[in-house]
């Protein structure tokens, strides 16, 4: 009887100035009991020690491959370049600050053997939250099902990442798959995300979120996404009714506490998110103005 061919996974990891986290990400894959995989790291224009950290690992393990792009472009660009080199049947797209759970591949293999599918969503949870910002993100991830994609290579070759996009590329990839009639399967596997630890880290993330909203609203024409900034209207409304802010925060806090089952962490998230939306709004306006000046949007 002919032996069933084992599934092969290709992990695609874009890395831009990720010297502090990329090694842990790769090691979490190397430690998997299943060994039917390859790792392709795309160093996208890093100016720190990322290249050397990855190269040291590549020198010790032939299943880890490195692609270097000196320009520095985007995660979508880096993921497409990695996918072009991939030999696996399925592509798993990770960020450099993500870590696999212990039985990650075993869970995926069990799923594939019982249900054949073209594209799936891998749940993202927080990794050992310590600071108030990380605890807030932990609460958010308990409620909101953030996900990273796993895609059959034959399907990915048809859709690929839109390299003109920033921050929202995963959402668009899932959407493009749905347009072709594919159902997104929720897997039982998950990855841990090392969430922003300090206010500076959160500022940086909200900055990219603001830029991503420019992509979503103007390039994808999803004008409804402007509702993301509606909470920013609360401060001006306080001139008419001073209690509107505490009432808003209280209602949202109760809602998140019920959904996430984490009362204190939900409070941290509600406050951090409220401030974060103003940061995103500022950069949304900055990047929108820059795009208008360049003639990219009208």
Describe this structure as you would to a colleague.
- The protein is α/β, with parallel strands linked by helices and 298 residues long.
- The chain has 2 domains: 9-193, Spore Coat Polysaccharide Biosynthesis Protein SpsA, Chain A, CATH 3.90.550.10; 199-294, no CATH class.
- The chain is built from 11 helices and 8 strands.
- α5 crosses α10 (244-260), α8 (199-219) crosses α11 and α10 crosses α11 (263-294).
- It starts with 8 loop residues before the first strand and ends with a helix.
Shape: globular
CATH superfamily of the largest domain: Spore Coat Polysaccharide Biosynthesis Protein SpsA, Chain A
The percentage helix is 40-55%
- In whole angstroms, the N-to-C terminal distance is 64 Å
Mean pLDDT equals 90
Q: What fraction of the residues are assigned to beta strands by DSSP?
A: 15-25%
Count all strands and give the number. 8
- Poorly predicted residue ranges: none
Adjacency order of strands in the biggest sheet: 3-2-1-4-7-6-8-5
Largest sheet, if any? 8 strands, mixed
Give me the Rg, rounded: 20 Å
- Count of individual helical segments: 11
What is the CATH domain class of the largest domain? Alpha Beta
Instruction: Give the domain tally.
Output: 2
Order of helical and strand elements? EHEHEHEEHEHEHHEHHHH
Structural class: alpha/beta
CATH topology of the largest domain: Spore Coat Polysaccharide Biosynthesis Protein SpsA, Chain A
The CATH architecture assignment of the largest domain turns out to be Alpha-Beta Complex
Compact overview of the structure:
By secondary structure, the protein is of the alpha/beta class. The chain contains eleven helices and eight strands. The protein folds into two domains: 9-193, Alpha-Beta Complex (Spore Coat Polysaccharide Biosynthesis Protein SpsA, Chain A), CATH 3.90.550.10; 199-294, no CATH class.
